[in-house]
Fold MFS transporter.
Amino acid sequence: MAIQNPPVSQTRSFSTVFLIEMWERFGFYGMQVLMVTYMMKKLGFVDSKANLVWGAAAALIYATPAIGGWVGDKLIGTRRTMITGAIVLALGYAMLWIPSNNPTLLYCALGVIVVGNGFFKPNAGNLVRKIYEGDDTRIDSAFTIYYMAVNIGSMVSMTATPWIRNYVGEHYGDALGWHTAFGSCAIGLLLGLGNYVLMHRTLAHIGSPADEKPLSLGRVAAVLVASVAMVFIAAAILQSLSIAKGAVILAGVVILGIFAYLIWISQKSERAGLIAALVLTVQTIFFFIFYAQMATSLNLFAQNNVNLSFEMFGVHLFTWIPEQYQNLNAIWIVILSPVLVFIYNGLGRAGKDPSVAFKFALGFAAVAVGFFMYGLGAMSAVDGQVSSWTMIWGYGLYSLGELLVSGLGLAMIARYVPARMGGFMMGAYYVAVGISQYLGSVVANLASIPEHISNPVESLSIYISLFNKLGFVGIACTVVAVVMLPLMNKLSASHAESRTPLPAVHSEE
């Protein structure tokens, strides 16, 4: 809860949240970048099972923040819930540090990570919003810098953890290499928590009303019991693909039911906006299906069909580890973000800034071209191996699409959904994004490689077939977005900005 004349500057308060967020994302992306290949190479999962297990985990990771934000606002406080989440996440990564290849331990560790992320993610963002509450001139810049923290943490970890795995594996054994890499994620969280202990006074005046009240033992006990139960529920969902599939179908029915109910009870003047919000939610789900390929099909494509040596004009520059190619997403986000801001500002000064709906269509077109780029690279493949530069340009277009599409979802829904339905709608939106994570793993399995195929030439055609299909789906999404432009422009003209839009949902949120 922000107060007038805070005892410390906004910048110092923001720096505290910025740093713990950076280390939290270091841990999360360091774990994510290795998880699918760990399940295949150390636990013996086939690629289709590894994809689905991670897809189910990602779905839960995206859905639980809707609950964690409520816990922070109403039960134990925003600051307390954020720190609780960081501690729980460190525990989850530490469980992966244990040198065991027991799948049950993995499922339980992922369950702990699901709960920790649910506590941490929404409350860290809420603290940033509360720090700059009432300061509209600085809040946009603050969230832009905050998003940079995400990409700094992910860039470092997605480069470091595969290298740690390889280095420790070569010198001390392969098994120790994997678990030490996961252990580094736990160390990252501990560093973030240590920094928070040193700087926590800068946030003493920031938080929800619950932060200012003594902890209620009853509420703490209820949160603890519910958290433990959620860990076991998540573990059960992850180890049973049929339960995971059923949960996703149920969640989809619930989301459609929520939209149908809201449209039914809405006033006539509100229905066009709600229908538009439904279309945007479906479009965003399609985007996150594309996004889910990074840790699944694109990751495995790099394992099997990419020449890992970067060369320019016949000169060898460096060699990457296959998992490190996922890092290209964060690198391109850092490169493209200021470029887009510069373009938007220039067009805005000229009165020609394109509508967000147009940016939506342009983003899907970029994603489509990005996936077609892999097929283009395959035309010059040598022995089933495409050039590393194919990955660079494919990820570049894919990341441009992310900046144009995923950053607009909640902000546009906030514009078109009546204020009295806003909180309900936000939770439904997050669950919808979680559904798309699981659907993304199902789509990735269209490129599942049969066990009898080990020749890169044969696997290349399988992956390229999937990427071309995704390219055509991207074109279809572009067409739908273009068709929706007149309605979106009409809604934008008729809906006055009566409230601050919800924060943008980027790739990691």
About this structure: Residues 241-310+324-509 form a domain with the Growth Hormone; Chain: A; fold (CATH 1.20.1250.20). The first strand starts at residue 309 and ends at 312. Confidence is low (pLDDT under 50) at residues 1-6, 495-509. The radius of gyration is 22 Å.
